[in-house]
Structure formats: C-alpha cells, structure tokens
Hints:
The protein has one domain (6-293): Aldolase class I (TIM Barrel, Alpha-Beta Barrel). Helix content is 43%, strand content 15%. It has helices spanning 11-17, 25-37, 60-65, 82-90, 104-111, 115-131, 154-166, 183-196, 213-222, 250-259, 268-282, 290-293, 299-303; strands spanning 6-9, 42-47, 74-79, 95-101, 136-141, 171-176, 201-206, 227-230. Helix 9 links the parallel strand 7 (201-206) and strand 8. Helix 7 crosses helix 8 (183-196). The longest helix has 17 residues, at 115-131. It starts with 5 loop residues before the first strand and ends with a helix. The relative contact order is 0.15. The protein binds coenzyme A and zinc ion. The site of zinc ion has 7 residues, from loops.
Amino acid sequence: MTRRIDIVEVGPRDGLQNDPANLTVEQKLEFIARLEEAGVKRMESGSFVSPKAVPKMADSPAVFAGLDRSKPTRHIALALNEKGVRRAIDAKADEINFVLVASETFGRKNQGMSPQESADMLARCAPLVHEAGIPLSATISVAFGDPYDGEVDLGVVGNLAAQSQRAGVAELALGDTIGVADPWAVRRAIDRVRIEAPDVYLRMHFHDTRGQALANVAAAVDAGVDVIDASCGGIGGCPFAPAATGNVATEDVVYMLERGGFETGLDLSKLINTAKWLETVLKHPVSSALSKAGGFPVKERLIT
Ligand code: COA
Ligand code: ZN
C-alpha cells in the first residue's frame, strides 16, 4: 500500500506573516480557496497574537469569518497565550496550534516567555481548548537552534515534549524556525521526543534558510514521521528571527514525495499555479524550485 504523507499548508499564516506585501482579507481568502482547490485539507489560516507583535495577522478574525465552511478543510489557528486561545475559539478555529519555545532569547523576543514559561502557559491554556472540544496541537519553535543563543539543548526539547503530552497535546511539531537543522539532527530530535513523549503524534516544520529543508523532510519521513508543514511558493519566515527565510515549499515537497512513491493527495499543477498567482499579489518572485521548473515528466510530452 502507498504510504500517505499529510501536508499541513502554513502559507496563509507562517507564509504571509513576514512577507512585505499587505494582502487584503479577500486576497487571503482567495489564497486559501486556491489551496483547497489544490487538495489541501489542513492549513494554518491565521494567528491570534498581538497585532502589535505581528501586524500582518491582525485581520485573522476577519479571515476566519470569511472562510468557506462547506469545504472539508481543517483551519488551524495559532495561539501563544490565553487571550489568543480565547480569540481563536471565538473565531471557530477547527484546531488550535500552540507555540512553545526551546530557547531563552528567541522566546523573550518572540513571545516574552522562557521555555518553561511557554510550557506553563500551555498548561494554563490547554484546558480551555479541551473544554471547547477543539483538537490541540503545538509547535516547539527554534527546536534546532536559536538565532541569538546558538545551539539548543535536546534535553529542553524533550522536556517540552513531555510537558506537551501531559497537557493533552495530540500532535507536536518540531520547528526549525531559522533553518539550521540537518538530516541527522532531525533524526536525533525525533528519537529523543519519541522517548520523552511516546503518545504524541509527530509533525515537522522546516525552513529552507540554509538549503537543508528537503533533505530534512526526507530524513523525517525515513524516521517514520508522516505529517509535514510546508508553504506554497516557499514563502514565509518569522519576524523575530533575523535572516529567517521561507518555509519549505509545498510544491517542492509534493514533487519529492510523489516521485518517491508516497501519496499526498495534492495536485502539483494547481499548487504551481497558486505559487505563480502568489507572485502577482505579493509582487515579488517566490522561491520554490517547482514554480520555476515545473513538474516531471512534462505533461505535454506525455500527451505526444
Ligand atoms: N491577541 C491580541 N492582543 C493580545 C494578545 C493576543 N493573543 N495577547 C496580548 N495582547 C495584547 C494585550 O491585550 C496588551 O494590549 P495593550 O497594550 O493594548 O494593553 C498587549 O498585547 C500586551 O499584552 P501582554 O500580555 O503584556 O503581552 P506581551 O507584551 O508580553 O506579549 C505576546 C506577549 C505573546 C502577546 C506577544 O509577544 C505576541 O503576540 N507575540 C507573537 C509572536 C508571533 O506570533 N510570532 C510568530 C509566530 S511563532
Ligand atoms: Zn515557521
């Protein structure tokens, strides 16, 4: 049987939060609709953080209010504190993804919290999400390195994973927020988290800042992980991580996995078209390889 890898599309949140372009709510909804048309079933559609911290996500309540709920998509809202969780519940998010932080200085700059404070905040917020009957997931940000403090201790990552499990987090992403992981570091982190939090489902979140993201996805899939975050066009980055560039591109991941014999349920041509459409609304090129080269085998050649 073909192994299925599920892709969580993060373009509308991680992708747009750091882009110089200011998309309207209508343009964001069109982006989301195009992704749904390409087969996306689960996506981060916005974040409920301080509008002062991330102005580009200030319109997330309006985006959630405008979603086409007749589609089967699970719309994820990002939240980092109690106020964010309450706002996400009010917006009828289908899932809430909480953000933990694995290192001190990034944690202070991104969310005003140390690693342990972020875990304490999760413990406070989780009951609210559970009471609302909404699935709770979490991401450990800077799990592979902090732009200010440097190397991150796997012990901290493991400890946060264990606390996530205790808080009832169903799925945990290890986030390479600044794109410093390599395939072997990915394996070590996965092995460690499986020991500390054996009941939590794993997801991986990679940025391609240093060109390692696809190799890291392959390493994670080899290690048995079958949920991967990606953003159409490879747009994105964190406003609090200097020099952080885009997420691994959805179409590049889909190409690699489908060539490798995995099933993603996504339509490569529609993803590429969406990446090209993004260039017109963002008014700058996107970074994905597939949006430039196209798929293979080339469709025209197949026809003739
Ligand atoms: N949504 C909207 N506003 C919020 C909020 C939320 N989730 N949480 C706090 N605020 C507002 C408060 O109401 C307060 O507003 P005021 O100044 O008008 O009174 C202000 O933000 C400060 O609140 P405080 O609780 O002291 O937060 P803080 O200044 O310590 O900041 C965060 C903490 C988490 C709110 C902030 O750092 C943040 O939103 N970070 C987001 C980072 C992010 O999204 N990074 C990328 C994704 S990981
Ligand atoms: Zn990210």
